[in-house]
Amino acid sequence: MPANRISTCKYNLFSFLPRFLYEQFRRYNNVFFLVIALLQQIPDVSPTGRYTTAVPFLIILSVSALKEMFEDLKRRRSDHKVNGFAVEILVAGKWTKKEWRDVEVGEFIRVDNDSLFPADLLLISSSEQQGMAYIETSNLDGETNLKIKQALDITSPLTSPEQLARFQAEITCEPPSRHVNEFNGNIDVDGQARHFGIDQLLLRGARLKNTAWIFGAVIYTGHDSKLLMNSKRAPLKSGTIDVKTNYRIIFLFFVLVALAIISAIGSEFWRQSNIPNAWYLSFLEHDPKGSFLWGVLTFFILYNNLIPISLQVTLEIVRFFQAIYINNDIEMYDPNSDSCAIARTSNLNEELGQVKFIMSDKTGTLTRNVMKFKRVSVGRKNYGNNEDDEFDDETLLEDYRSGESPMILEILKMMAICHTVVPEKKEGEELIYQSSSPDEAALVRGAATQKITFHTRQPQKVVCDVLGNDETYEILDVIDFTSDRKRMSVIVRDQEGNIKLYTKGADTVIFERLKKGSEEDIRNCSAHLEDYASFGYRTLCFAVKNLQPGEYEKWAPEYKKAILAIDNRAQLLAQAAEKLENSMELVGATAIEDKLQEWVPETIQALMAADIRVWMLTGDKRETAINIAHSCALVHPHTELLIVDKTTYEDTYNKLEQFAQRAIELEKLEKEFAMVIDGKSLLHALTGEARKHFGELALRCNAVVCCRMSPMQKAEVVEMVRSLAKEGVVLAIGDGANDVAMIQAANVGVGISGEEGLQAASASDYAIPRFHFLRRLLLVHGAWNHDRSVKVILYSFYKNICLYIIELWFAIFSAWSGQTIFERWTIGMFNVIFTAWPPVVLGLFDHPVPAEQIMKYPALYASFQKRAFSIGNFSLWIGMAVVHSLSLFFLTYFYLENQVVWAEGRTGGWLMLGNCAYTYVVATVCLKALLECDSWTWPVVVACLGSIFLWMVFVVAYSLVFPLLSNIGADMAGMAYIMFSSYTFWIALLFIPVATLMWDLVIKSLFTIALPTPRELAVMYSKRNSSINGFERLASSWAANHGPTKDAATVFASRFSLRKKIQPSPENSWLKNEQQSPEYGSTEMTNFTPKRRKSPPISYENESFVPDQQEDVPPNVTRIVVNLDDEDDRIYMNGGGGKTTRV
After folding, report:
1. Which residues are annotated as catalytic?
2. DSSP for 24-78?
3. Is 194 annotated as a binding residue?
4. 1097 contacts: CB under 8 Å, gap ≥ 6
5. Residue 619 annotated in ligand binding
6. How confident is the model at residue 232, as a pLDDT?
7. Residue 813's pLDDT band (boundaries 50, 70, 90)?
8. pLDDT at 1142 over 50
9. Does residue 1073 register a pLDDT over 70?
């Protein structure tokens, strides 16, 4: 295969059969049926024939094979299209057009503007000055911001094919890896070695933009390219439903073995009791086929269909279409981004209905990731306010001009210089800043509003308009930001020749690197940072250091050596940076606002009402994280926060132990509490004995906020919760590349296609455009899919046991001989044809409760989990299957006991009994599907009644086969006429299924009356009330005019709410009102048009307003009010007692 040819196909012509069979026979049920099919080939051992299992099994395998081939064919077509793209390759000094598949390592290629790179390339030169090029990486990470690349100065002059043809060099680089943001290599030209890195690497799949052409040298091709290295399959996740189903199958297997042994014992007893007294059967006494082991094998084959052969393919069909439902749900479509929900896998649909823990990123997930520069701190003074949409404080420049603070210009210059932003000029000289980090772009725009405008980037230089004059700064070195360093530095030389180190980063790393005597500056800055954090702003600190020429010249060679290193490069760079980033002078701090996404508080409240624990995992500082937690309703003013902020293992362990006891006390007092823990404490909390205390405490908390976290810590927390909460499903949701590890570690990963690109969405199991769509994804699709799939599984077990256990009852009357009551091919076609559609329609069209109702009453979500696939519910279904089989067999047996069911006095024989019983079983199990379906739609009714009709048609056709096909259907010849000509058969068809299903009606009625489930209550109330006022948090004019009323919905909510009830005290006069009061801890949302409101607040205390109808708010109810007149839809939240706060 050519080096650059790619293949994402799963199979080829030779590997399809072995790989497909390996995939299929990793499933225990397929191995079981293979064994049965092989046992049936033993002569005279199978009472059901040699092919009655093999043929249905082959049909099911064929369906799976066709599905695999169809999916693989789509991959093959896509590969062929990509491999055939055209590219220009340098051959004998001329550009020659070839296909991507022909590209090889070491060749020179030309890529034109707006074209994709066919392989990983070293940028040699470009049409731009000094070898600069702009690329877009949306195919790799979803980011549409342009990134700048620059060729080395020793290759940038090579701008013609003739020069390239004469150019010779030796390239040494690291082995292929999947790290798209890291790369190291050296190029040796005429004995001179130069390092090149990620700034010179053009990745396969990226697109050239705003550059006429580039020349590149091929480094990695095909599957060695970073794009293909990152195309590995996500870790295989198995659903809890599948695991439980496997356990149920294993249980039924042992039941099958037990029944085979019992039947063989019955056969032995019958033989010993009857054969000695029957001289005409004496030859059976010494028949080797009458041995005990032979009997066990015979009955094992006879009862094998107790395990449903079609279960797996039925589930695959159901899950496939359930995923299509998710993809096409218009309620989860976002018009702003023109994107909708995407189910990237269908195997975890039921897991969405069993979520107990949600691990959520903050930035871009709960917030919009649209950054705006809000505040700046310089010296002792704080500039800006919290009310304006962006920074707008004229006193900043006024103070600079007055000479009050010379550091003002320094911090504005740092904002305009210390970054990796690329300016792009649009028509009308408008500047557009392209940046992979929204924070950096916000700071550059903020500096521009203060007349420090960054407008030109050149290799090793940036040009800024400083108060009307252009100033050029030479970029000597850039020390990049990493998650470990938590800071970025640039070393610049200004026009006067001064060399400066500019550093920006987190306060914790900046403060500890300041020069001695900076304590007062740190105190002033810390006070401002705490104020910023109280509003949920993202903060950065800035520091500067003036370098002497000798100091820089001494340091630079060591840093250059670290840059050229291939091994341990990151560690060597960090060590070199530490030698320079010290004894700095604090310049100031900035605050950037990242607003909450729409409906985040409502979504989190609904999820918590559904008994789901929500965790927020963020890299922000503690104060910011706590404030965002309040803003998004994760915690409330009355929530007690258990803050773990220790730096040593011993202190962290003691704190966790102390809080574990406190949590038990708070649970007894029925008070809400949440835990807040930072990254340093978390490092110790996940180690040794502390891990146990941390896990126990975290699982007790209503919410958990983890701050200052690294990406790997997020994944470790997810794995810890998965290991401790074995019964609960853990869902992780994020939007950035730093969330990929967390998403892949969770049971279910949800990605948000946001400002940080599509890496999280690409690695996820489900992708949604906005966080608030998670509410519908879980409460509606999750609850529905879970309930539907469980019904499919239980129904599949039920219908098989209902039919095939009849063979056991018949064995009692057939001398335990192993004789089957049914014709052999009807046995095999039961799952494949006659009862194939009822479970499918149950899984696709059943609506347990209306979507609007479960959105209003999230507590219904948890109620679905309790009884859906419990051992009790499974036992009930199996018990009913046994009862139904008893009823169907013995009613049919007694109805045909005299065998004379025709006026002429004819008898029908054993097959008349079998076919009648089979007909009644088909009718019963199909009608059972209708009984179990909560909403009858035409597909459900057609599938159930049509299956009964299909059996009737089959009987007629099968009765006419013999003697046309001499080896098939001899026993069934004429059976359709024999059976259908008996009027008693038709009477029994009406009576026996109805009588059998009376068991269901009685048991269902008793359970509904004595122990109604919340779902049953919901169904009853939805039928009695045309409109329901429930847990509906979205703003509505109805709520503003009416409020909650004492109707069936209010009573219904109180009956199944999962919140712990707290008895009101008599002094609470608001409870005495005739109007029904909201439930404790509930939340309302209403609209108001203000008559009067004070100027916007600067803090969270006592914001006053006057709605149209001011009502007393109970102290234990949170009321959210939306001002419809505000353009920015400010939201105010009353935390109880009449105090209203701004969300």
Report:
1. 361
2. HTTSHHHHHHHHHHHHTTSTTT-TT-SSTTHHHHHHHHHHHHHHHHHHHHHHHHH
3. no
4. 387, 1103, 1142
5. yes
6. 52
7. confident
8. no
9. no
| DSSP-based three-state secondary structure for 357 | strand
The response to whether 708 counts as a known ligand-binding position is yes
- 3-class DSSP string for 897-951: CCCECCCCCCECCHHHHHHHHHHHHHHHHHHHHHHHCCCCCHHHHHHHHHHHHHH
- Among residues 765, 763, 774, 772, the alpha carbon closest in space to that of 142 is found at 763
Closest to 750 (Cα-Cα) out of 426, 1127, 326, 464: 326
The DSSP letter of residue 280 is G
363 labelled binding-site residue: yes
Q: Rounded distance, CA 1010 to CA 153, Å?
A: 84
- DSSP for 951-997, please give it: HHHHHHHHHTTTTTSTTS-TTTTTHHHHHHT-HHHHHHHHHHHHHHH
Q: For residue 417, what pLDDT is reported?
A: 92
Find, among 484, 667, 711, 703, the residue nearest to 575 by Cα: 484
Determine the 3-state secondary structure of 654 from DSSP: helix
Own/partner contacts of 31-40, CB < 8 Å, gap of 24 or more, are: 32/249, 32/253, 32/304, 32/307, 33/57, 33/304, 33/307, 33/309, 36/301, 36/304, 39/297, 39/300, 39/301, 40/301
Q: Which pLDDT value is given to residue 330?
A: 92
Cα separation, 718 vs 721, whole angstroms? 5
C-alpha span between 422 and 401 (Å, rounded): 29
Among all chains, which residue has been given the structure tokens 């049409």?
127
738 annotated ligand-binding residue: yes
Q: Are 957 and 929 in contact (CB under 8 A)?
A: no
Residue 618 annotated in ligand binding = yes
**Are 177 and 466 in contact, with CB atoms under 8 Å apart?**
no
Using CB atoms within 10 Å of the CB of residue 167, give its burial: 0 to 12 exposed, 13 to 18 middle, 19+ buried. middle
The string of pLDDT tens digits covering residues 216-240 is 999 999 888 887 776 655 566 777 8
Return the exposure string of 976-996: e unless at least 16 CB atoms fall within 10 Å of the residue's CB, then b.
bebbeebeebeebbeebbeeb
Q: What is the largest CA-CA distance in the chain?
A: 126
Tell me, what's the pLDDT at 544? 95
Q: How far is CA 957 from CA 821, 829, 946, 951, 1046, in A?
A: 20, 14, 16, 10, 62
In the chain, pLDDT over 90 holds for what percent of residues? 28
Supply the pLDDT for residue 903. 61
Q: Decide which of 362 and 902 is more confident.
A: 362
Check the annotation: does 361 bind a ligand. yes
pLDDT score at 873:
86
Residue 1024 annotated in ligand binding: no
The structure tokens 């869902």 sit at 731
Residue 127 per-residue DSSP state: S
- What digits encode the pLDDT tens for the residues 911-964? 888 899 999 999 999 999 998 888 888 999 999 999 999 999 998 888 887 667
- The pairing of beta strand 1083-1088 with beta strand 108-112: unpaired
> What is the number of helices (H) and of strands (E) in the chain?
39, 38
